[in-house]
Amino acid sequence: MRSSVRSVVAGVQGDGRGKALLAIASSSFLLIGVQMVYPVVLPELRAAYGLNLGTAGMLLTVLWIANAAGQVPGGILADRLGEGRIMVASTVISAITVVFIVLAGSIVLLFLATVLLGLGIALFGVARYTALDDLFPERVGTSVGIALAAADAGQALLPPIAGVLAAAVAWQLGFAYTLPLFVVVALALWIYVPGSTSGPDSGFDSVSRETIRYVGSSLRKRPVLYGSAAFIVYMTVWITFTGFYPTYLIEEKGMSATVAGVLFGSFFAVGVGIKPLSGMAYDRFGIRLSLLTVMGISGAALVALPFLEGLVPIALVTLLIAPMLGSGTIAQSHIIEGVPDDIKGTGLGVIRTGGMAVAAVSPTIFGTFADWGYFNEAFLGLAGLAGVIILLVLQIPPE
Predict the structure, then answer these.
(1) Both ends of the chain: CA-CA distance in Å?
(2) pLDDT given for residue 115 in this prediction
(3) CA–CA gap between residue 96 and residue 197 (Å, rounded)
(4) What is the DSSP code (8-state) at residue 51?
């Protein structure tokens, strides 16, 4: 075990690539962490703008639809202009958008700023995966796991801080305090990540019927098709769960906003360890065994959640739901390796757009059911979707 860990560490640090991985991981920490500030400050936003749960869910839906819409353009731009350049642009655009969110004085402006934030983060979404595949071709699962673990660290740390600041001072401060971090991350990406990691042969010169056929045929291969379907269902579960879990703990389980924020942070804190382990498991065992394991544990925990009361049982089941965070690492590593190198960014962008577009509708539907008094039943529905992921994974041929 010790020699295996040393081998993994050496594999992601060699040839000076460790600094590039650190820069990409830091940007994941910040951009994904900021995105998760929304669920934590949702009670303050509801009070400030008079939103019901359905409208609040629509705000999350808008964020994720914008994120989905930017995935294909982000993938194409990463292929054509370079992964490093696009990640820097994404960080700068997102920072400017955070300023707009802070200054929004009406619900219309808040929704518009949310759209812009989703688009800005979307540019980063595909570029980081293809850059990691280029930089670490033999350790793609492990490097993706490290970057996504950093994202979970951001989701574990940034939202609770934002929640405290929003409750104690103003909700605007929950976003504004992240602005200095954007400057540091943008500089790190500019200095340590090559402008283009994929070389001059990636991408395509123009969109044609032949190009569309080529992309389509590459994505219809059975391993990619079922892996993509599992990723889409996972995104639906993840977006809905993370969007409403703090509110659910407050309104259904009677917890304070502070306790709900800590439990929400602990969910992502577990992901800091789960994601690198999931990536290592994928590199060694492939998608079937690794994804069946994490979703089996999380699905069972989601079934138990509505029937539990009290801080300790709910805290324990929160930690058992967290292994599903490794699903994104496993599924996307599998997809990246199944898509041809010359359309890697474009192909992953198409899949992520489809997944996020489908999943983005779920918060509005979920919030509406919660307004009707079916909050617990909605969480049982998420457990059923975890079972769907298991069925899809079983359709993927063994490696």
Answers:
(1) 23
(2) 92
(3) 26
(4) -
pTM: 0.69
- Provide, for the chain, the percentages of residues in helix, strand and coil under a 3-state DSSP scheme, each rounded to the nearest 5: 85, 0, 15
Task: State the pLDDT at residue 9.
Answer: 43
Phi-psi region of 373 (alpha: psi -120 to 50; beta: other; left: phi over 0): left
SS3 assignment, position 1: coil
Token reading at 87: 């990640």
Per-10-residue mean pLDDT for the chain, 399 residues long? 43 64 92 86 83 79 83 81 89 93 86 91 84 80 82 83 85 90 93 76 54 70 83 87 85 85 82 82 84 91 90 92 87 79 73 76 80 85 91 81
DSSP class per residue in 274-343 = HHHHHHHHHHHH-HHHHHHHHHHHHHHHHHHGGG--SHHHHHHHHHHHGGGGHHHHHHHHHHHHHS-GGG
Are the beta carbons of 396 and 227 closer than 8 angstroms? yes
- Phi first, then psi, for residue 203 (nearest 5°) are 80, -175
**Which tokens sit at 359?**
């999943």
109 contact partners, CB below 8 Å, separation of at least 6 = 100, 103
For residue 287, CA distances in Å to 107, 180, 281, 397 come to 43, 38, 8, 10
E strands in 73-198? none
The per-residue pLDDT for 8 is 43
The domain limits of the chain are: 16-195+215-393
| CA dist., res. 345 & res. 329, Å (int) | 16
Maximum separation of any 2 CA atoms in the chain, in Å: 59
- 16-195+215-393 belongs to CATH 1.20.1250.20: yes
pLDDT at position 95 is: 93
Positive or negative, the CA dihedral 230, 138, 216, 65 is positive
For residues 247 and 163, is the Cβ–Cβ distance under 8 A? no
Per-residue pLDDT, 10:
46
The burial of 285, by beta-carbon neighbours within 10 Å (0-12 exposed, 13-18 middle, 19 or more buried), is given as: middle
